[in-house]
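Q: what sequence does this backbone want?
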């Protein structure tokens, strides 16, 4: 399955490890050990953690010389939404906008701003106009001031709001991707029963990854703006079925890795 362009696949490993371990904070040596069981090298996964701290996706605290990581920012918001079943958020009936006209000489700052806005749920309606179902301008306040971005909102009728959402989120393509996800998850189910604990840990991550990417791509879009034949409920039911088969073994594996570590006492359990 493909990952949407605004989703960073390597960033899904820390939330996955925390969720499977049922922990809210994990020391770096244990987190890197778990991440390396999934893919990449130890040094590459250490670089992933550094990038996530720099982007505000992870919070880092220190216990002596050992770093302890927890989710932060919009990654934490997405994590809690997906953990809760991916249900659409409530909506105030407005589409919130960010309007900008940045000189070409400031292209790098403009692209950084657009990328940050996409991460917190905005999508491009047309050049210079970003739209979101919720006001996330506070998370971008520094860049808004720096670039002279104008926050605002649209009060419009429901048909127009749905048309805007359909265009900005490419909802036809997203619906098709959701149907393909269901087919992918259903086809995978028969092979899962005989997996050992470590294989279950890796396989669960591989199956969850595209569902997380698909959910993040929606940017917190509310139910009122979804198409009529929206596959979200089916996608998350398929995922729940996979969870029921793999999660007990995956969690047992993660717990065994954690309890074998000398840094066990630094883990904060949910």
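A:
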């Amino acid at each position: 399955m493909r990952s949407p362009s605004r989703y960073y696949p390597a960033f899904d490993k820390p939330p996955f490890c925390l969720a499977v371990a049922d922990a809210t904070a994990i020391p770096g040596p244990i987190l890197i050990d778990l991440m390396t069981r999934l893919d990449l090298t130890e040094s590459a996964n250490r670089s992933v953690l550094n990038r996530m701290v720099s982007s505000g996706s992870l919070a880092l605290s220190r216990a002596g010389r050992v770093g302890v990581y927890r989710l932060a920012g919009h990654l934490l918001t997405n994590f809690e939404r997906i953990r809760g079943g991916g249900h659409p958020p409530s909506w105030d009936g407005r589409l919130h906008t960010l309007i900008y006209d940045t000189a070409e000489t400031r292209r790098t700052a403009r692209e950084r701003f657009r990328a940050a806005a996409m991460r917190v749920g905005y999508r491009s309606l047309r050049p210079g106009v970003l739209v979101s179902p919720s006001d996330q301008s506070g998370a971008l306040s520094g860049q808004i001031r720096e670039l002279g971005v104008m926050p605002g909102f649209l009060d419009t009728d429901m048909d127009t709001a749905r048309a805007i959402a359909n265009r900005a989120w490419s909802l036809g393509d997203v619906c098709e991707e959701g149907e393909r996800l269901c087919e992918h998850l259903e086809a995978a189910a028969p092979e899962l029963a005989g997996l050992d604990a470590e294989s279950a840990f890796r396989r669960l991550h591989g199956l969850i990854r595209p569902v997380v990417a698909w959910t993040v791509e929606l940017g917190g879009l509310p139910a009122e703006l979804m198409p009529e034949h929206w596959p979200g409920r089916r996608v998350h039911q398929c995922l729940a079925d996979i969870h029921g088969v793999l999660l007990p073994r995956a969690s047992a594996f993660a717990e065994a890795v954690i309890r074998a570590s000398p840094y066990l006492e630094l883990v904060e359990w949910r």
